[in-house]
Specification:
2 copies of one chain form a homodimer.
Chain A (H helix, E strand, L loop, with lengths): L1 E4 H6 L2 H10 L4 E2 L1 E6 L5 E6 L3 E5 L2 E7 L6 H10 L1 E6 L5 H6 L10 H4 L4 E2 L8 E2 L4 E13 L4 E13 L19 E3 L3 E10 L8
Antiparallel strand pairs in A: 2-12, 3-4, 3-7, 5-6, 6-11, 7-10, 8-9, 10-11, 12-13
């Protein structure tokens, strides 16, 4: 096996380190966070850090660097207290990746990609049309991770929309039935396939 | 699409909600965290919340419920300040899932599964042998998420061991070359395949 020490990691080329450290934790969720600004401009940005925080109450979180891109997402969430999380279908990966380009705040990524807006029940919050799973979230809190200045955004799950063919009898959303992607590292999009489900694990005698 | 409101989520059957909310955020990393207790007993537990926190310095985090399983992981990390993160190969999923069974602290999951210990450079910290990627981590801090009492554990990346055939020239670890799995929901193991990598995104004119 190839071994990287902490010293080597600290001293390596920046791009090499970005690729290595972003890929070393395993597969990541691929989601588009959609928001709207105080001026009514919609924003979409790709995130790979959305994490389950708890089921009861239903909560999720994600990591954000407030001083770098995607800053619009943070400003909009703080203004509106609402955002949508949209899974990325394999046909959407090129456009999804393009949302990481640094556009000015007055430009909507919906105009610069083939991704289309969708609204639910007449509310102003945008969702990504044809996303296999869409979640409306409410901002609850943020925690600054002092060790590197990032923020953990904590949100509640308010509404879930899911393609019916992905929903199993026991409530599980089988993601591969909807063509949902996962991210490897910074820029590699992957398509997972189900291997096996296992029952609740009990100790062996 | 099937629509679940917050009220429906709050009132649904507990198992249905666990499956729905655990699968609604997308694919999750599949990792075994290995630790050692103050009595020298090795512990392995499966986690699906390990998240990239930053590259410089290299940091990762994960979510833990201190009052429920896997409590041993938390106690051991607080004692030793070190733990290892081990990716799960598709041949290891059955045993990896079994580590979620509630064994007494004096029983090592290495004894109850076919998973084997590996030590690096004579140190007492266990790794999982044949894991495609192994990371030695140092505990840095923890943040209590007040909204539901979970903890975000923050750690630094101290050493990385990676199968040479997974490591690309630019530092990216191509996870599908090592047979690394991803988790869907609570108990469904999946195998991703690479679709495409994209260059750094720049605004369109």
């Amino acid at each position: 096996m190839k071994h990287f020490t902490k010293k080597q990691i600290n001293e390596m080329d920046k791009i090499y380190r970005l690729n290595l450290i972003n890929s070393c934790t395993g597969y990541k969720s691929s989601n588009l966070i959609a928001t709207v600004s105080d001026k009514g401009v919609n924003n979409i940005a790709i995130f790979s850090s959305i994490t389950h925080l708890g089921s009861d109450p239903a909560m999720l979180g994600f990591i954000l660097r407030p001083k770098t891109v995607p800053r619009d997402t943070y400003v909009n969430i703080k203004y509106k207290k609402k955002f949508s999380v949209n899974h990325i279908h394999y046909s959407q990966i090129k456009d999804a990746h393009h949302t990481s380009a640094k556009y000015a705040s007055e430009i909507s990524e919906f105009e610069k990609t083939e991704l289309m807006e969708e609204y639910k029940h007449g509310k102003a919050l945008p969702f990504v049309k044809n996303a296999p799973v869409q979640i409306e979230c409410k901002y609850l809190n943020e925690y600054e991770i002092k060790e590197n200045g990032t923020l953990l955004i904590v949100a509640s799950v308010e509404n879930i929309f899911v393609n019916k063919n992905m929903l199993l009898e026991d409530g599980m959303i089988q993601l591969d039935k909807g063509g949902v992607t996962a991210i490897n590292g910074l820029d590699c999009y992957t398509l997972p396939k189900k291997l096996e489900r296992f029952p609740y694990a009990r100790p062996k005698k």
